[in-house]
Amino acid sequence: MRRRFNVTGACSPKRHYMVRLDERLKKIKEDYVDYGSYFVINRGRQYGKTTTLKSLKKYLLGDYIVLSLDFQELSTANFADESTFTRAFAKVFMRSFKTSGLSDSKVLLEPVAEFIEKEGGSLNDLFDCLSRLCENSPCPIVLMIDEVDSAGNNQVFIEFLALLRKYYLNRDETPIFHSVILAGVYDIKNLKLKLRPETEHRYNSPWNIAAKFNIDMSFSTDQIEVMLEEYEADYHTGMDIQEMAEEIYQYTSGYPVLVSSICKYIDEYLPDEDGFDELGRAWTKEGIARAVKMLLSENTPLFDSMVKQLDVYKDMREMMEQILYQGRKISFSPAEKSINLGLMFGFLKEENGHVAVANRIFEMYLIDLFIAEESIRSDMFLYGQVVRNQYIEDGVLNMKLVLEKFVLHFTEIYGSNTEKFVETNGRKLFLLYLKPIINGTGNYYIEAQTRDAKRTDIIVDYLGEQFIIELKIWHGSEYNERGEKQLADYLNYYHQDKGYLLSFNFNKNKETGVKEIAIANKTIVEAVV
Q: Which of 339, 412, 510, 527, by CA, is between 20 and 30 Å from 48?
């Protein structure tokens, strides 16, 4: 069977190119299931939760009876009240048990079948049946419930969790499931974030028994390499597998669906693009950059979810804008609500004690989103849009001219504004100016390693050519000279001979304009506004 890269639903090694999960499954079994832990796999959208559960079910068979439920099978009406929920749950439970392969499942399920037949069953009645089933089972039972978010707004589910907790605490006297695994975006302890205010007071830590789930579910560079090796064995593209894996990781930080998406675009869509008519040309750094651009232009479920959450949680959105536009260093604390939410959704991460956007693709998408919103009322975007064609000469972007025109237009529009305005918005204004010039052809992203309140580096990719642009706030001649030296060193890292420096200078006697200087065999085009 031919395989492909998958970005929809669970992955299967027979049908899809995917990373190997053996080590992850072994660790979950030995560190959690074998100890009888109850725990939650909560990760962002399309982070491989369902794939992990399906693979784990097969991995555990032989040592355990594994019952896999999906709360998407239950409708909103199934959560209307206790009696309705318990009967619906019992039916889904029975279906799962019948596929477990146990020969005497019918006998074991008799208490549950009787429960379904009678009217008005309570949660206590349901758990009494489940306890008897677990007591008579020849093997310990592991219960998995996927998509628990589907139930997060329902009080009856909170009460279900509370009873699970009660039985867990008394399991030495009253038999119940050996291990329970819940999966969803929301951590159970954060379900109160989904409950309506009038019901929130009834939330009372129903799942404080859960073991902390510390398994890294992102893909490492080595794991991406192994996946690409399997692909290369089938297609013989001649790609540099290690280089491709490292470049994909640089963009994604191992976020599973983003890794698979880039690979899918390269494999299936890029060969139809000019310059990438062969797979060997597609599996290059230039091919990855083009695939990223294609990905960012799509309305994917992951991006749609991100936009929705940013609309709901305004403080989280504001924090991301401050990180990306202003280089603000925000101290990391998962106790802070906006940070906690960003971590839970997979949008944020901790980096050197500060909050950071989770990966480069998210940064690029967010900047595009923020700029699209700003462009509606931005004179700088309009100027960049109107004169964009003059910056392209024989398919080559003239970045020096971009800076010259930016200085001219910036001074014309914002020259009389306050220092505080420019310091807060300067980088945003340059990105607004640059966006329409490279739009449709080039990409750009903000280099996370150099981003702070004083300095930000922008990397522009345009038709295979890279431009390194440092944006900084003027803090005197000595600081500026250090910045020039830093940029020269940074150019070595990117194997570039020319770099660009844009300084926002608030001195009244400043000299605006663009000039070229030579430092350490590097040419730096320096613009001052």
A: 339
